[in-house]
Specification:
Elements (H helix, E strand, L loop, with lengths): L4 H13 L2 H8 L3 H15 L4 E3 L4 E3 L1 H28 L5 E7 H4 L2 H12 L4 E7 L4 H7 L4 E5 L7 E10 L1 E4 L11 E2 L8 E4 L2 H10 L12 E3 L2 H9 L4 E4 L4 H6 L3 E6 L4 E9 L6 H14 L8
Parallel strand pairs: 3-4, 3-5, 8-12, 9-10, 9-11
Antiparallel strand pairs: 1-2, 5-13, 6-13, 7-11, 7-12
InterPro entries: HTH-type_LysR_regulators (IPR050950), LysR_HTH_N (IPR000847), LysR_subst-bd (IPR005119), WH-like_DNA-bd_sf (IPR036388), WH_DNA-bd_sf (IPR036390)
Family: Belongs to the LysR transcriptional regulatory family.
Protein name: LysR family transcriptional regulator
């Protein structure tokens, strides 16, 4: 049995109009083409669908029983096509994104609000987690997209650079270094540095190179969250380092940021997705939105 949607549409049109002429006009086809579709459908089903006479055209008894089911099939298909259109137009859909805690409380909310303003029908779900678990959330399928600093990936994770930023030193406004507009790494020698656990400190010291000789890694106070580091800095227990996108949070703690150079050490942030798994239209739309907003350098001002 080889029944087509065109044949079913022809059947419903004739059943609803009671006329081959009117049904052909509704479907924008010739009457002979419509007649051919009905004959093909009757041949495929092995049933007579219409009782014809010189005065009227009526559904056969069998066709009368089939009509509600065929009409429902076409109605459901119209709903599917309409829903696909909504998804492609970003009128509906959902996006799940995993980001580290600092990104989650500084940069991402404003970006999410900007995307929501353009696509209010798309549901956004933010998963804030530890830096080292971002890719694991992507790999497990818990989220569609992950955003975080550069990390070694496996063959199942695709990584594309999203933006790059330099480190900034953070200190109380009354600190001696706060009187300078810019700092160099040797200016931090002898200072109590509060850094993050994990790869943060190792990568930082490695990237700074010779200029890090005065930074005593073993004397660093390492904490899990940047909010903890900022609270310790506010209490006068040292200074810390973070990205420019965290400026709003730094200012909430009453602290100031100063750029550090010679050398300028940058940290790149990447977008992670699962290889071989196509993003939904909503997720792809959000990814494109992020790339347009962040790749042009606006991340620091968000």
């Amino acid at each position: 049995m080889n029944v087509t949607l065109r044949q079913l549409s022809a059947f419903v049109a004739v059943a609803e109009t009671g006329s081959f002429t009117l049904a052909a006009e509704r479907l924008f086809i010739t009457q002979s083409a419509l007649s051919g579709l009905i004959k093909e459908l009757e041949a495929s089903l092995g049933l007579r669908l219409f009782d014809r006479s010189t005065r009227r055209l009526r559904l056969s008894d069998t066709a009368r029983e089939l009509y509600p089911q065929v009409e429902k099939i076409l109605h459901d298909l119209d709903g599917v096509v309409s829903e696909v259109g909504n998804l492609k137009a970003l009128q509906r859909g959902s996006v799940r994104v995993a980001v580290p805690q600092l990104l989650a409380c500084t940069l991402l909310p404003e970006l999410m609000a900007g995307f929501r303003a353009q696509h209010p029908g798309v549901h956004l779900r933010l998963v804030d987690c530890a830096v080292e678990s971002v890719m694991a959330r992507v790999f497990s399928g818990e989220v569609d997209i992950g955003i975080g600093p550069e990390r070694e990936t496996n063959s199942d994770i695709a990584a594309d650079q999203l933006f790059c930023m330099p480190f900034m030193a953070v200190m109380p406004p009354g600190h001696a270094l706060a009187r300078r507009r810019t700092l160099q790494w040797h200016d931090l020698s002898g200072q109590s540095l509060i850094t993050l656990q994990g790869q943060f400190t190792d990568l930082l010291v490695s990237d700074v190179g010779e200029a890090a000789r005065g930074l005593h890694k073993e004397a660093f106070m390492q904490v899990t969250f940047m909010t903890t580091a900022l609270a310790l800095v506010r209490a006068g227990l040292g200074i810390t380092l973070c990205m420019p996108y965290a400026r709003s949070l730094v200012e909430q703690f009453g602290l100031v940021m100063r750029p550090v150079g010679d050398p300028v050490v940058e940290r790149s942030f990447w977008i992670f997705t699962r290889r071989g798994r196509a993003l939904s239209p909503a997720a792809q739309g959000f990814r494109t939105f992020l790339e347009e907003r962040l790749m042009d350098g606006r991340a620091g001002s968000a």
